[in-house]
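User: Before I run my own analysis I want an independent prediction to cross-check against. Here's the chain; please return only the structure tokens and, at the end, one sentence I can use as a sanity check.
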Amino acid sequence: MTTLTYADYLQVDTLLSLQETRAPDTASRSVVLAEHFFIVTHQACELWLKQVTYDLDAAADAMTPPYGPEDEELALEFLQRTAELLRVLHEQVVALERLPLRHFAEFRPFLDGASGAQSAQFRLLARLLGGERQEGRLYRAFERLTEHNGISVTEVCARGPGAGVLNRIADSLLDVANGYWRWKMTHLALVSKMVGNRNGTGGSSGVDYLARRITLPFAQLRQLRAQVHDALVWEQPTARTQ
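Assistant: Structure tokens:
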């Protein structure tokens, strides 16, 4: 029986063969390495996006009936891991700031119509999280979970730590949303720095297109938290005497 090796388990040879640069043979080594860096970073982002969407989907499932005895804690674990992975995605974009503009400009024409806006996993993530006008699957599942526990999201926010794991889930949802927003804002800043107001490779309007797609998920939860904040401020003695 053949012993499973690290390389076999991770399919390292296959993984390391997936970076196919498009720059012509006449391009300098620096340009080829810059494009290789560009490809590796985006491939890594897609791998992390796969884990993020899997974990958020699992979190939504755990908050959807029928419920098991550990589902609330499982949902919390998935959300907390996602918040950390969104930090990793943010750092991937920060790393791309080390892509020299002169090299990017040289290999960018060979991307043809390929664009990050075409990422199917990003669109899936957006559906899970929802936007400022419409809640996604994740928040709707959280609402069902609170109803199962005999309270509303409003009451969870009002009770704070007294709501136990439901309050920790609410906190983690906001951590995920903030991580998502931070990642997209950093990407917007990077694109603006690199190409200014030029159109995107996929035919989009570039920076303007990206800016319109940046949303801060869980608007209802934020509004409820704001109401709790206002109520707590009003309860302070200094507020009542003014």
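Sanity check: The mean pLDDT is 90.
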